[in-house]
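Please, does this match?
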Amino acid sequence: CLATLIIMLVGDTYTLINYVSFINYLCYGVTIIGLIVLRWKKPKIFRPIKVNLLIPITYLAFWAFLLVFSLYSEPIVCGVGLIIILTGVPVFFLGVYWRNKPKCINRLIESLTCWGQKLCFVVYPQCGSAEEE
């Protein structure tokens, strides 16, 4: 969000749309690759929807063409898009990967989560215990 705000203040909306579309296509392709890998490595797990593998493989062929064409035609936009994605790596390590965080950091993360939920009206706030209400 912070990177998006900075880009909106510095750049124009067209450039931001290019960044986001590159990021979306990259994430869609990685998701389809994950689908194919899971179908190959774990063929017996339950899947509510199962499609013929020809469909995701065809999608990946078009995806690769679009991604390579994007990288060739606008390498700077794609590079900035990758940098935007990589800004999430420190957040992942601080919030998810680091298991034995000090209690003050856990409280800060819970407080920010609760605040964000209230701000965006995404779920009912569950801050504190039920006795306090």
